[in-house]
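User: As part of a screening pipeline, I want to sanity-check one entry by hand. Below is the sequence and the SMILES for zinc ion. Please return the complex as structure tokens so I can compare it with the automated output.
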Amino acid sequence: MLTRKDVKWQWRVEQQKAFDKLKRAFTTKPVLAAPDLDKEFRVEADVSNYATGGVLSMNCSDEMWKPVAFISKSLSDTERNYEIHDKEMLAVVRCLEAWRHFLEGAAIKFEIWTNHKNLKYFMKAQKLNRRQARWALYLSRFNFILKHVPGSKIGKADSLSRRPDWKVEVEKDNEDQRLVKPEWLEVRKTEMIEIIVDGVDLLEEVRKSKVKDNEMVKAVEEVKKAGVKMLRDEEWREIDGIIYKEGKVYVPKDNRLRAEIIRLHHDTPVGGHGGQWKIVELVTQNFWWPGITKEVKQYIEGCNACQHNKNCTEQPAGKLMPNSIPEKLWTHISVHFITKLPLVQGYNSILVVVD
Ligand SMILES: [Zn+2]
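Assistant: Here is the complex for your manual check:
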């Protein structure tokens, strides 16, 4: 600011104050703690419209957390267009990349504090794009838990993601990206907000299903009565008219609906007419009902497109046989091009004629 073109150099009380403040900050606490891999770490990550920020802290003793490192990095044009949950994840991934050498081998499971609950939601996301899949793979190397912390509590990471010098010409860009859908913040542990496959909101379909499913009610009772040791109450729960079994949406015995769900996971680009196990895997990421595997198998067996593409019904091409040795001239003539040879005097092919 002081040396910019067209700005008059001046050093007044204000500047001296700022200088003194900086001097103090550099020479007094909080100073960075030296990382110790046997101690507990904490990562705070945050993102703004134009940058990510992060703080690595360490539990030094008696809950005295001291900062170990800070990062602040701007977003590229592409990254600025990410969905908010992707931006949040990018902030986390950048922290993990920056401090991998501390965190990957950390003795104690560490917490990652982020601003938005939607990151948790994202962890349950059904279909990962390539970038997300890469992140998921990367994250799996670390021993951490994600903790949702409101923005005000992660002020350091938040301000690092708002460094004004990276804000240049970004201000008007994607302003709403930081808005989190309010209903997302209400998400309870196993509740899903929407499951949209090929433009159909399946959760809404399940909710709307009028089929009174006595079998299911009985099944829930039975399973509970059976007293399987692992069984906990949370395995079955009802939220907002949807019944979940271990976090998966239970689809009532509505054959039309169940078939539709399979169809949407099989006949669409997502399913790509995949085989039984692929489709079972896709469907059961979100849904469950008894006998689902069998029903998927039956569906695929009945799928016209799959049956047509299953085997090549054409006669295989015959084996190439050499001609028998001719007895006269001009009875057998074969012609063959040898192409794509290196250019010699402007030519690159040879025509071979055999009589
Ligand atoms: Zn098919």
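Points to compare against the pipeline: The mean pLDDT is 74. The pocket of zinc ion is lined by residues 266, 273, 300, 303, 305-306 (CB under 6 Å).
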